[in-house]
DNA sequence: CCCGTATGGTCCGATTCGTATGATTCGAAC
DNA sequence: GTTCGAATCATACGAATCGGACCATACGGG
């Protein structure tokens, strides 16, 4: 049970499990797709391997159904819970980038007017999606709601930005 | 010269090269660090391998110094230029995520007030950096300027968001 | 009981990552 | 004009990730 390498993926699994335990990786996958993956996605196969890794490290407990599909069912152990809490409590300076393919093309000299309509549309769709979620679950947990609001704010920003470029077409 | 797999990394190299050719991978690395990597970074070793790959595919021409360090010096070929233009011209629907470690923690229930100060500070620093770049190069190419403005807008948004949570401390 | 579809999970080659390290050049000191 | 350290330039390579393809089980309807 040496201290395992912990990545964002690890904490995503721990965090999801806290919301849903006991759960199979498949359960987590479903939950994730309706939530975190909207702003931080990982390939679904990672969930399976990460569960195994974390179980090996003693942060998760693994049970198997003894018949049928023999699914693996996970719960948090005390040290899993502890790791999650420690991560949550520790503020962070580490930053990520707001990567956007449209902006990358723009940077390298693409024609703004040519890019803009598709970008507006794509970001509008994302925004609609977020707002639908917000409307559907008005009683969402505080943290999720805030994360969602942040997502909405960014999408609005993208739309504002690209809309302006779209209007600039006439130049 | 089979059609090579083209990734964002490929276009970053092509785009940088267009700005700086003829150039060594090292030159590109330097240029990138002062520009694109601010919003779309890749490990520097990738630049070396990507140059070789693209040269193998006929999109770049490689010359080597014949003495000393025997550096590889690259220029775009006609088909390299063509690939870059095609990429730029083609609008895109593919989206990326705005990943932010703070938001991830928030989502999983971290205490907003505990996270906020560090987040405000980190994003403020990033914003200052961007604004310094904007001030230093007022005559930046159109595309870069727009990309930078987008970055600035997003950083402001992050700051607004986290500042509000910071104020909410009293609850 | 058979088949089609949905569910649940794994495999594995290809790619990417990033640390560690190696090699060349340059300049300043003596 | 040689030695040393720092800066420049570059690669090697093991570990981690990626994601498409595929396999297995369950379930419902005819």
Summary keywords:
two-stranded antiparallel sheet, 2 strands, mainly alpha, 171 residues, DNA-binding, homodimer
How many strand units of chain A?
Answer: 2
Number of helices of chain A: 7
Work out the helicity level of chain A: 55-70%
What fraction strand of chain A?
Answer: 5-15%
* Main structural class of chain A: mainly alpha
Question: SSE order of chain A in H/E notation?
Answer: HHHEEHHHH
Query: How large is the radius of gyration of chain A?
Result: 20 Å
Major sheet summary line of chain A: 2 strands, antiparallel
Strand order of the largest sheet of chain A: 1-2
Largest interface: A-B, 62 and 62 residues
Low-confidence stretches of chain A: none
First and last CA, distance of chain A:
64 Å
What is the general shape of chain A? elongated
- Oligomerization category of the chains in this entry: homodimer
- Overall pLDDT confidence of chain A: 89
Short note summarizing the structure:
The structure is a homodimer of 171-residue chains. Chain A is built from 7 helices and 2 strands; from the N terminus they run H-H-H-E-E-H-H-H-H. The first copy, chain A, has 171 residues and is mainly α.
């Amino acid at each position: 049970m040496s201290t395992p390498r912990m990545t964002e993926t690890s904490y995503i699994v721990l965090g999801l499990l806290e919301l849903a335990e006991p759960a199979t990786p498949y359960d987590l996958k479903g939950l994730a797709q309706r939530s975190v993956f909207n702003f931080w996605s990982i390939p679904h196969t990672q969930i399976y391997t990460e569960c195994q890794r974390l179980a090996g490290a003693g942060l998760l407990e693994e049970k198997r159904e003894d018949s049928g599909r023999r699914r693996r069912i996970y719960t948090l152990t005390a040290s899993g819970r502890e790791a999650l809490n420690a991560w949550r409590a520790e503020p962070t300076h580490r930053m990520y980038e707001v990567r956007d393919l449209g902006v990358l093309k723009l940077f390298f000299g693409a024609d703004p007017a040519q890019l803009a309509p598709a970008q507006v549309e794509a970001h509008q769709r994302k925004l609609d999606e977020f707002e639908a979620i917000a409307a559907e679950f008005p009683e969402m947990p505080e943290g999720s709601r805030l994360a969602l609001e942040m997502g909405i704010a960014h999408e609005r920003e993208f739309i504002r930005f690209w809309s302006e470029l779209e209007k600039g077409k006439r130049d």
